[in-house]
Write a structure and sequence with these properties.
alpha+beta; 2 domains; about 270 residues; Beta-Lactamase; six-stranded antiparallel beta sheet; globular; 10 helices; Arc Repressor Mutant, subunit A
Length: about 270
């Protein structure tokens, strides 16, 4: 988020937007007054004044070694947001059941721009380490949950997100060896639409495989996705195939808890 310089924007709104832009800039790694000012497009004096106000409120803090960082107030608010989330309150019992059944790592996430945002993670008992963590983001097109979140999007949207995520990996010099060529990716996405279950065979993280399914709200819209993830050693093709039913069953249970009805959706289709 870059601060707006539009003179038609009320002063209070402009200050609020700049403050939010500073928080986002720091979250992305800007740690000095100069870097933050460049990121939000403001003068040094304006940036300093806003940073001081945010620090006083606990949204930012300053360390002599690393510079500016996100403050404890954001941790507090983030925890409250998770604890009071209607989605998580409905989903958590089903996630725990799925984790106990599969003995693998279970996640739930939502869309955040061109990425997924992890809302919850239940670790596997065998302790396989993964990059995923609550509050972390991953490429939307390359993760099983991201693909599940894209199932209702037009096919042109699939390609746009796929290309954007690949471009991002190239910019950050991340490994993309296991990413499927677009024709193969496209064909698999079409199959996923029919089944409402998606797969990740080490496309997002080497050595990790994943099975996911979309979660729908009362209006039938995909609002989240949940998944089971594990190392290749415990997720061969046969196991991934067997997990499809359990993952989809859990997603349907969460969707039903949010007010979704398969019968209602089928009725819409017939009309």
């Amino acid at each position: 988020m870059r601060a707006t310089g539009n003179s038609n924007v009320p002063a209070g709104t402009q200050t609020l937007m700049r403050g939010m832009a500073i928080v986002e800039a720091v979250a992305r790694g800007a740690a000095t007054l100069k870097d933050i000012g460049v990121a939000i497009g403001c003068t040094r004096s304006t940036t300093h004044r806003l940073i001081q106000s945010l620090a006083q409120a606990g949204f930012l803090c300053r360390d002599r070694k690393i510079g500016y960082a996100l403050g404890p107030r954001l941790v507090e608010l983030g925890t409250l947001a998770r604890d009071r989330s209607p989605l998580l309150s409905v989903a958590l019992p089903h996630l725990q059941t799925l984790a106990a059944k599969t003995q693998e790592t279970v996640h739930i996430s939502v869309v955040q721009g061109q990425e997924i945002l992890y809302l919850e993670k239940i670790e596997s008992r065998h302790g396989t380490r993964m990059r995923s963590k609550v509050g972390c983001r991953m490429p939307l097109a390359l993760t099983a949950m991201g693909k599940a979140l894209l199932l209702d999007s037009p096919e042109s949207g699939w390609r746009a997100i796929y290309q954007a995520n690949l471009d991002q990996l190239v910019r950050t010099r991340s490994a993309i060896a296991r990413v499927l060529p677009w024709p193969d990716y496209h064909a698999r996405m079409r199959g996923y639409v029919a089944e409402e279950v998606t797969l990740d065979r080490e496309e997002n993280e080497p050595g990790i495989r994943c099975v996911a399914a979309p979660v729908r709200d009362a209006d039938g819209r995909i609002t989240a996705a949940l998944s089971v993830s594990g190392p290749v050693s415990s997720m061969p093709d046969e196991r991934m195939s067997a997990l499809r039913f359990e993952v989809k069953q859990a997603a349907v249970a969460v969707s039903t808890g949010l007010g979704w009805s398969q019968r209602r959706d089928l009725g819409r289709c017939h009309h």
